[in-house]
Amino acid sequence: MAAEGHGPSAGEYITHHLQHLQKNFSFESVKQTSIVDFSVFNLDSVAFSLLLGVIGCFVLWRAARKATSGVPGRFQAAVEILSEMVENQAKGVIHNAKSRKLVSPLALTVFVWIFLMNAMDMLPVDLIPAIWHSAGPALGFKDYMRVVPTADLSTTLGLSSSVLLMCFFYNIKIKGLGGWGHELISAPFGAHWALWPFNFLMQVIEFVAKTVSHGMRLFGNMFAGELVFMLIALMGGAFTLSATGIGLAIGHVIAGTVWTLFHILVITLQAFIFMMLTLIYIGQAHDAH
Question: Partner of 45 for a Cys bridge, out of 78, 149, 208, 233, CB 3.0 to 4.6 A?
């Protein structure tokens, strides 16, 4: 991470912490002929996403299994409040009760999953990377580890692309393949044959713009939060027995506490916004132009 004989500079520290644990699964001959290499996987993002997804599903399953008709406990009450909130939001956007039987649990899962992934940003910056510093090279991996999956653009665009596929599914299910095909070439400018190419182009632009902005919004906020935590960590790393060093250490504690408390709101709000946009986009798939 740094040149031998001295600690890392601020730039080296941040650059190192922004590197993913990656694995290339392609053959060299295939890699050389491709313009964009899709064979590189960010193993840290994949591993933490899967782990947190399993944890989130287990928590919801546990709450459903332990649910009683009597006075609920605090855990059951919290999950019921969350479920009712998501269901009420879904009712306001998706008026098809049959669709809500799938979409409402999906939205609840999305909220919990993204909240847990965002919450990884609350861990000390160097905690898990320091553990990996000892274990990773011994296992044959490089000394890189990022723990916030939603600060990885491939994760957030993967999530938004999944929402896009759900929109395609409901467009076809609700309107039929022919009905949706007619909508693609007749909206928004009209059904005249001369306007078909322009209508289709506008529809494609709309789908692409919604998908990209959906993923970029979550990524941008979480990546910025991750950078702020790294900068705060650098303040603590500059501690020395001097007035400046002690001042930076005190600033590290104050800034870290304030940003952590504020970031609780950020990670919750970003999970809610992603869930709401998921409901809105799927709801739009139910509407005819």
Answer: 149
- In the block, which residue shows the tokens 């930076």? 248
Instruction: Count the domains in the chain.
Output: 1
SS3 per-residue string spanning 162-197: HHHHHHHHHHHHHHHHHHHHHHHHHCCCCCCHHHHH
How far apart CA 135 and CA 203 sit, in angstroms, is 49
Instruction: Give a yes or no: residue 1 inside a domain.
Output: no
Residues with a known catalytic role? 213, 217, 221
Residue 2 lies in a domain: no
75 domain residue, yes or no: yes
Dig out the tokens for 277 from the structure: 């946009």
Residue 92 CB: number of other CB atoms within 10 A?
A: 11
The tens digit of pLDDT for each residue in 243-270 reads 777 777 787 788 888 998 999 999 999 9
N-to-C CA span, the chain: 55
Token reading at 74 = 């605090």
pLDDT tens-digit series, residues 119-146: 999 998 888 888 888 887 777 777 788 9
**Looking at residues 215-227, what average pLDDT do you find?**
94
Q: Residue 31: inside a domain, yes or no?
A: no
Query: Of 266, 46, 25, which is closest to residue 158 (Cα–Cα)?
Result: 46
Q: Is the distance from CB of 153 to CB of 11 less than 8 angstroms?
A: no
Residue range(s) defining the domain that contains residue 271: 10-25+36-286
161 touches 278 (CB < 8 A) = no
Q: pTM higher than 0.70, yes or no?
A: yes
Task: Let me know if 76 is exposed, middle or buried by CB neighbors in 10 A (0-12, 13-18, 19+).
Answer: middle
